[in-house]
Fold this sequence. Notes:
The chain is an alpha+beta fold. 20% of the residues lie in helices and 26% in strands. It catalyses: Thiol-dependent hydrolysis of ester, thioester, amide, peptide and isopeptide bonds formed by the C-terminal Gly of ubiquitin (a 76-residue protein attached to proteins as an intracellular targeting signal).
Amino acid sequence: MDTAHSAQFSQTDSLDRVLRTAQDQFVVSPQEETRLWIKNAEGSFERLCNTRVTLRDTNVESGQVVVMETRSKDGTWPSQQTRVASNGPKEEEELQGQPGICGLTNLGNTCFMNSALQCLSNVPQLTEYFLKNRYLEELNFCNPLGMKGEIAEAYADLVKQAWSGHHRNIVPNVFKTKVGHFASQFLGYQQHDSQELLSFLLDGLHEDLNRVKKKEYVEQCDAAGRPDQEVAVEAWQNHKRRNDSVIVDTFHGLFKSTLVCPDCGNVSVTFDPFCYLSVPLPVSHKRVMEVFFVSMDPRRKPEQHRLVVPKKGKISDLCMALAKHTGVSPERMMVADVFSHRFYKIFQLDESLSTILDRDDIFIYEVSGRSSITENTREDVVIPVYLRERTPARDYNNSYYGLMLFGHPLLVSVPRDRLSWDALYHILLYRLSRYVTRPSSDDEDDGEDKDMEGGKNIPKSGNMAGGSSQDPGPDQAGPSSGVASGSRVPAASSPGPSNWPQRARRKHLFTLQTVNSNGTSDRSNFNEDTQAQPYIAIDWDPEMKKRYYDEVEAEGYVKHDCVGYVLKKAPVRLQECIELFTTMETLEKENPWYCPNCKQHQLATKKLDLWTLPETLIIHLKRFSYTKFSREKLDTLVEFPIRDLDFSEFVIKPQDESAPELYKYDLIAVSNHYGGLRDGHYTTFACNKDSGQWHYFDDNSVSPVTENQIESKAAYVLFYQRQDVARRLRTKPQPGQSDPPAPACDPLPESMDIN
């Protein structure tokens, strides 16, 4: 509109008086939500947030233009240039759907935020608090612990839009920006935890709406032998002296914390407020591991086994579990982690199983009972064996061959008195006989081949591994020998690399080469006096491999009957999780308690009990487990009731038996997490406060569901409402369904001159 109204005010008048005057002059109902802007000299507008301050405090000068803005019917502000919904303005005005049935657009990995917002939006008393504008009187702009009211206002905008009934979905970009501004961990578009966002939001709303404008210092007092009832009342009063908001009214309860010193027996009892319960899930002490067993019998294919072992067990426990399936003694087993056709690690029996991840490929090899990979006193030596194929590579004279690993490596037991290249060749040929065809005498006879010199003794230091009896040297070792030019084998006592018997000159199906643990021929990292066990590579010529090596058979394996068994995880009841939460525990070394009697930190025993419960109880299921060696998500099914969750057995405060509804709760919302630790997706089940119908919120998609669809392994954060509160809300008169009267003029710009 073109008309501007003028009004006169004193410098001591508050902005609230200016706002009321503007409402009167523009005939805007006091029930309409309005806000003020001031026009600066350069033409920009600045929000006047705190209407309780005076004109002098805001430095408003005579003649300046103040604009009053009225919130639209769809919950948005006209000054917002970007539409918060995907629909056009006209369509949004005409749309009249069920309030609260509104999706939230995913801005990029913000499903965690959307899930938390949908849960909180369906807490009836909190939503009514914002819809009825009671928050406007309690905005705390001066709280140094708050966010200048900006988080509360941004959340109020979302609630009003979602519950206007004029939007199918809205874009929470303003709220996302505010959250990132005040909590840097939520900046950007990385995936986060819905419970962490919920914790930040509840704390931010509390401080922005804290009715306590100036917090006094309150010292926490110990019970010191006083009755629990007296100490609890004192603790709650002290809490309310510093914290008094709609969040405290709705979500805060009281713990009783009991600490006992293990040395002097001193007992410390305190009462502490809480906003939500983070309850542990019963954790199984067993673990399922899948392994492949490789027998010494070359005719047997590798067997896949599914083994149940102690979570905190050792490699020896894994071997003992496998021994029950195979009949092979654990002393005749060696465990290795195979990655990219090579041994990533060969384990010792006393190593912890926690170092093995579920995604690791674990092979367990049967070896001779006399074998050892390190001890020289054993009669047999365990040799790690790799498979390699020569591949032509460009070089100046086209004579260099690259070597590429393939297939599964082996751990082969070799008698110490048979450490000759000829004996090793035939041992390996026998071990590979299931998928390597022995050549006929005609195929094997080659004019260039010489007889095997299997009786050769250990060469002197400096001889080439695989050189002939005449020791032709690096220059005479052709590309088929598998010996890199200039490589030397250092001297060492058996079974060191230099003490291996010479390889015969005769060309067979493959050649043998000592390599390092990576499967390359570079042994420069070995010192002259090293006694490290060498690795052996079986080098194949491509043509020989094609003729005699059956790749399909080599990759074949069988599944043991145990693989078909499914270890069913028994579901747990929510009450079991709460019992675990209230179970006595001993403090960890990283978090000791200072005993005032002993005057030192102690690993005390601690027990938490529930004293009073809030109107709306948030229960966080601790599905994500983090330890020093492992991280995992627990996908245990937690059975939780939709109605009549009874806490009477967990509350230790003397109870009022005439009001059992004070301890019974009904479910109103669930935040779900699907997926694992590194990735996942959050959704929400929520019960609409007006219709009582359950809906499934998946970002901008909303669909009705039945109650039997709510319980799942994905349930992560549960919202319960106390039954007496639900009854109280139902008996309250519902707000008028008719729309508030439209303003007599266009809400923006509505301005007046300040004289």
